[in-house]
Write a structure and sequence with these properties.
The chain is of the alpha+beta class. The strands form eleven sheets. Strands 14, 15, 16, 17, 19, 21, 22 and 24 form an eight-stranded antiparallel sheet that branches. The chain has a six-stranded mixed sheet with strand order 10-31-30-26-11-12, sandwiched between helices. Strands 13, 18, 20, 23 and 25 form a five-stranded antiparallel sheet that branches. Helix 2 packs across helix 13.
């Protein structure tokens, strides 16, 4: 008898024992022997109206008389367990999409759900049921990244519905597990369904498209994740679509999601979206009416508190209690299927120990994902890979040593990490690595550095008085008073004993004494609110709940003078960190960086943008950025200026781009030797970058979005029609096309095989031979595109319909096969039906889109005639 069999038998015996011990007088919902539906219905029948309503908001309280524990449905897992302390941080979602590796995506999601389970049960043992510590994950974001200006595009899998669906299906499967009875965690694809900015307008905006765009672009990924992957939850979006709020939308929620797709799970609103129904969209008079509308349409759970008004809605006859029961059944079905009402020994995932969080094995997977995500966009003259025999390497740029650009948004906290600078230093061999930041991310002027203890005085000693309060309002007597040498705190990484990381505040006070006179730039970065006074004057005020944000303020200070300083901070959940920096008058940082570059053999400039200036509904208003979105896609002026000066030294320049979206680096594409797209690469991003730069890893990432030359090539941001957008409808010349990416080797395609004709409604088999025709091993992303030669107006120019990432040694060949289904050969016709029409299609297979400039391998093509009668694919 094998160990596996013995373990399985022991588990069955334990479960049988637990069931046998079930008190026969206990209510049916506590009996794991009974059918799930019976248990759920029994539990709901015992609840009062007020108790039912309390369970329909994300922070669901305990109901002690029924042994229902408190549970917060709000949890995040976009690229790692987020906002719940230490966890493995993988590349941001857009970077994961750039791997074009569905197997990798499944393994990443499987690790995320393992860590979520490990952390949840450890928190539960400690009686901690706070937000971000549960098992219902509000991920992935599968909105179509239709415009590079959208700040949340970094959270998505790019601009293509097929790529998004294939990557998303594997992510959901990895999260939810494969147990026949229990979910590992529950995945919540979002934001259903037509949602992608502008961020500042999302609470009142009405998106408009025709049905072709809805069914051909915006819906396919959601349908695949629900019907194919079995996602048991969906989040509805803030905005309206064609006049109706998405969280009370009859077509999206009732007709499509429930009636056509047979979705059995629950719908949760985005946070505050029910408020928007009556406050922003003004389609309901008050919270009671808005809540009734949403529940009737199928939004079962609210992130927020407007559903408290359901009590009034029932009294007013706007909704029946029996209609609430429909939502309650879905919600408690989810909790039962997560094992929350069964003995832990019956739930296999409940036995995952906390030691399975943040392991070395998981860190290695994060490194693998970061390597696969890196896209080589240019490599002229063989600048890369770098030789370790270089005497001196200059690393310059505002994101070269920045933790935030590793993490993106909706992130966890890594126990250790490698920035681009530290990764390069660790792998540079005998070469000397010199570093100068050179410039700020967006503005010119001094570069902020931590205000040192030597310039901070309290009670005659270096540092500041720090008073820690056990509430968000600096109220009452401090729980702890101490001296902090500098203000540079991350309480997730270094917690304060006895302090609730979801609700506390701090006040620092003392004297600030600059050494020289001049214009200083005081800078505070924090998550959440902060405010800074100098000599009693409020200098910086950002006293709001927000993710990590930086605020700068210039001030004239006199050397040797002591100024009163007071800095206050509050934390309201999630990440908790703050620092106080200043830019000191002195030599122009760009001048110093150029001098260092001129004395080096090669220059690596690491720049781009940051999650501190692109993201979700941010209070950011600077040149090129507004409200989390971008107003242009250019490299910020301060960076363009220093990059030109670095190139003018005549030294080889490698540009490494950090971003969650496309950058229009037109000048760089003409003047620097190599360009590498790093994205927001996760905790091991610096190591992965160094592996690529020094040739220890052959890059093979591909762009999941089009890199345009400028926004002048695009329609207005708030126009949701697809005409002129993404590779499927864009007729201009991009800077770098969707699907593009270079390698240190080359690949040759041949023997494209497909039948000359196929009957409408039948599958189509395609195969191609790909050979590594270069001198080093590497991955190739084989891409299949389909083009209708007789497509009606409004149809895509071409569409990705197959891809596979393969690894080939130098000289090695492999035959790659695809099977195209009728749906993949279909189109949305003039009556907005999904049909396969007789006619001719062109298939193109290669390492990029056919005709991509700069690609190292040419695509091979063939034509196939579709015969027979028009075949309707049902449903759409």
């Amino acid at each position: 008898m094998t160990r596996l069999v013995r373990t399985a038998i022991a588990s069955l015996l334990v479960s049988a024992s637990l069931i046998a011990q079930t008190n026969t007088s206990a209510p049916p919902y506590k009996d794991p022997r009974l059918p799930l539906e019976e248990r759920v219905n029994d539990l709901i029948s015992r609840m009062t109206l007020d108790e039912k309503i309390s369970q329909m908001m994300n922070a669901a309280p305990a109901i002690p008389r029924l042994d229902i524990p408190a549970y917060d449905w709000w949890n995040e897992a976009l690229h790692g367990v987020a906002r719940a302390g230490r966890a493995t941080v993988f590349p941001q979602a857009i970077g994961l999409a750039a791997t074009w590796d569905t197997d990798l995506m499944f393994r990443v999601a499987d690790v995320i759900s393992t860590e979520a389970r490990a952390k949840h049960h450890e928190f539960d043992r400690q009686g901690d049921r706070a937000r971000y510590k549960g098992l219902t994950m509000w991920s992935p974001n599968i909105n179509i990244f239709r415009d590079p200006r959208w700040g949340r595009g970094q959270e998505t899998y790019g601009e293509d519905p097929y790529l998004t669906a294939r990557m998303g299906v594997q992510f959901v499967k990895g999260l939810q597990g494969n147990d026949p009875k229990y979910f590992k965690v529950i995945s919540t694809p979002k934001h259903y369904a037509v949602h992608s900015g502008p961020e500042p307008d999302r609470h009142h905006f009405d998106a408009s498209t025709d049905q072709r765009d809805l069914y051909d672009t915006y819906l396919p990924a959601f349908e695949a994740l629900i019907k194919e992957a079995g996602a048991f939850s969906v989040m509805c979006a803030y905005n309206r679509y064609l006049g109706e709020p998405c969280c009370s939308h009859s077509l999206l929620l009732e007709k499509l999601l429930r009636a056509e797709w047979k979705f059995p799970g629950y719908v949760v609103s985005d946070c505050g979206a029910i408020d928007d129904i009556y406050r922003g969209h003004k389609v309901a008079p008050d919270a009671a009416a808005a809540s009734a509308m949403a529940v009737k349409a199928g939004t079962d759970l609210e992130c927020g508190t407007s559903y408290r008004a359901l009590s009034d809605a029932v009294k007013k006859g706007l909704i029946k209690e029996s209609e609430l029961d429909v939502s309650l059944r879905r919600l408690f079905t989810a909790r039962f299927k997560l094992g929350m009402f069964d003995p832990p020994d019956m739930v296999p995932y409940a036995r995952i120990p906390i030691e399975q969080n943040d392991t070395m094995e998981h860190r290695r997977l994060s490194l693998e994902a970061a390597r696969e995500s890196i896209v080589l966009l240019k490599n002229e003259g063989g600048v890369l890979p770098l030789k370790r025999s270089k005497r001196k390497i200059a690393v310059i740029g505002p994101t070269a040593d920045d933790l935030t650009v590793l993490l993106g948004n909706y992130n966890g906290t890594p126990s250790s990490y490698a920035t681009p600078l530290s990764g390069i230093r660790a792998q540079s061999g005998l070469a000397k690595v010199v570093y100068e930041q050179g410039c700020n991310l967006t503005d010119e002027g001094p570069i902020p550095e931590l205000v040192p203890a030597s310039s901070l005085i309290f009670d005659g000693k270096p540092g500041l008085k720090a008073e820690y309060f056990g509430n968000r309002g600096l109220e009452g007597k401090p729980l702890l008073t101490r001296t902090d040498q500098v203000v540079d705190s991350n309480w997730v990484a270094t917690p304060v004993p006895g302090l609730d990381q979801n609700a506390f505040s701090v006040r620092w006070s003392g004297k600030l004494t600059p050494k020289v006179s001049g214009t200083y730039v005081l800078s505070v970065t924090g998550d959440d609110g902060y405010r800074l006074w100098i000599d009693g004057a409020l200098l910086i005020d950002n006293w709001t709940t927000h993710r990590s944000q930086t605020r700068n303020k210039s001030i004239e200070l006199s050397g040797g003078r002591a100024y009163d300083l007071k800095l206050e901070y509050f934390q309201s959940g999630g990440d908790c960190a703050i620092n106080l920096k200043w830019g000191v008058p002195g030599e122009d940082p760009a001048t110093k960086a150029v001098r260092v570059a001129a004395d080096s053999d090669v220059v690596i400039f690491v720049g781009g943008i940051s999650p501190q200036i692109e993201g979700e509904e941010m209070n950011v208003q600077i040149d090129g950025f507004f409200g989390g979105d971008r107003t242009n896609i250019d490299l910020p002026k301060a960076q363009r200026k220093i990059l030109e000066a670095l190139a003018a030294t005549g030294k080889p320049v490698v540009l490494v781009l950090t971003s969650g979206s496309a950058l229009g680096v037109n000048w760089a594409n003409e003047h620097v030797g190599a360009i590498v797209q790093l994205w927001y690469p996760g905790e091991e991003g610096g190591t992965a970058l160094a592996d690529v730069l020094f040739g220890d890893y052959n890059p093979a990432g591909r762009l999941p979005v089009t890199f345009y030359k400028s926004i002048d090539q695009l329609p207005p941001f708030d126009d949701y029609r697809m005409a002129g957008r993404t590779y499927r409808y864009f007729t201009g010349e991009p800077l770098f096309p969707f699907g593009f990416g270079l390698s240190y080797t080359s690949f040759l395609y041949s023997a494209l095989t497909a039948p000359a004709q196929v009957k409408a409604g039948d599958n189509l088999s395609v195969s191609v031979k790909v050979r590594n025709s270069g001198k080093v091993a590497g991955d190739e992303v084989v891409q299949l595109y389909l083009r209708r030669l007789d497509a009606p107006a409004g149809a895509p120019i071409r569409a990705l319909e197959g891809f596979k990432r393969v690894r080939l040694k130098a000289g090695q060949s492999q035959t790659v096969s695809f099977t195209l289904t009728p749906r993949q050969m279909s189109l949305i016709d003039r009556e907005f039906r999904r049909v396969v029409e007789p006619g001719e299609v062109e298939l193109a297979v290669g390492g990029s889109q056919p005709g991509s400039k700069g690609a190292r391998s040419a695509s091979v093509t063939t034509k196939v005639r579709i015969t027979g009668k028009s075949f309707e694919v049902s449903p759409r």
